[in-house]
Amino acid sequence: MVEGVPMMQRVVDTTTAVIDKTGADQMSNPTLCTEWTVKDVINHMVGGATMFAISVEEGSVPDAMLGQLMGGDNLGDDPQGAWATASERAMKAFSLPGAMEKMVKLPFGEMPGGIALNIAIFDVATHACDLARATGQHVTDAEVLDGALAMGKQMIGPDLRVPGVFGDEQAADAQATAEDKLLAFAGRKI
Predict the structure, then answer these.
(1) In-domain check, residue 59
(2) Does some domain include residue 190?
(3) Does the residue 117 lie in any domain?
(4) 111 bridge partner residues
(5) Can you tell me the distance from the alpha carbon of 139 to that of 14, in angstroms, rounded to the nearest whole number?
(6) CB count in 10 Å sphere of residue 6
(7) Sign of CA dihedral 68, 99, 89, 42
(8) At what angle do helices 113-134 and 79-94 cross, to 10 degrees?
(9) CA distances (Å), origin 102, targets 105, 125, 145
């Protein structure tokens, strides 16, 4: 199984394909993240990618910037361009020498960069599936989705299964697609 930075690059490539095929007329579509539209999910992903990049580059994100990244408009009038810029910066940061061992401070704790990378893999892959569902697309790279699910199972405990973060795990039968299994684990009603 692909892991680490190469896995993150595949998640980014998969996500970019979904975002690039998302039309301006789909930005207000509802998503499986019931509080968010397509535009909201992309905005969250751009803010998150930038947050991870700054954390790896500088050790933490200044509080004044964190509010913007987590709640402001990170897209402007170019969601695809904003994602391309943010995801490229995150990939460069995670690829820096020593990035996996470096301690980084994120809003939910301090951890080595490698753990932050695994969180990013799970989060971005899940949101790529959210976007795909909301825009009539599918994420079909089962290796990426299975890897993201395995990481999620290592990291997501009962303390994160709260409204607005991850809902209760949903049932997915043995014949479900890798996309459905990942979404069900993340608490999405599929």
Answers:
(1) yes
(2) no
(3) yes
(4) 104
(5) 7
(6) 9
(7) negative
(8) 160
(9) 10, 23, 26
Here the CATH number for the domain that contains residue 123 is 1.20.120.450
Q: How many domains does the chain have?
A: 1
* 181 closest CA partner among 96, 122, 97: 122
What tokens were used for 77? 């009038």
DSSP state of 1: -
In a structure prediction context, what are the per-residue pLDDT tens digits for the chain, which is 190 residues long?
678 999 999 999 999 999 999 999 999 999 998 889 999 999 999 999 999 999 999 999 998 899 899 889 999 999 999 999 999 999 999 999 999 999 999 988 899 999 999 999 999 999 999 999 999 999 999 999 999 999 999 988 777 777 666 788 899 998 999 999 999 999 998 8
- Tell me the pairing of strands 109-112 and 103-106: antiparallel
Place of tokens 């969180």: 119
Domain that holds residue 99: 4-185
Is 26 in contact with 135 (CB distance < 8 Å)?
yes
Residue at 136 is within a domain = yes
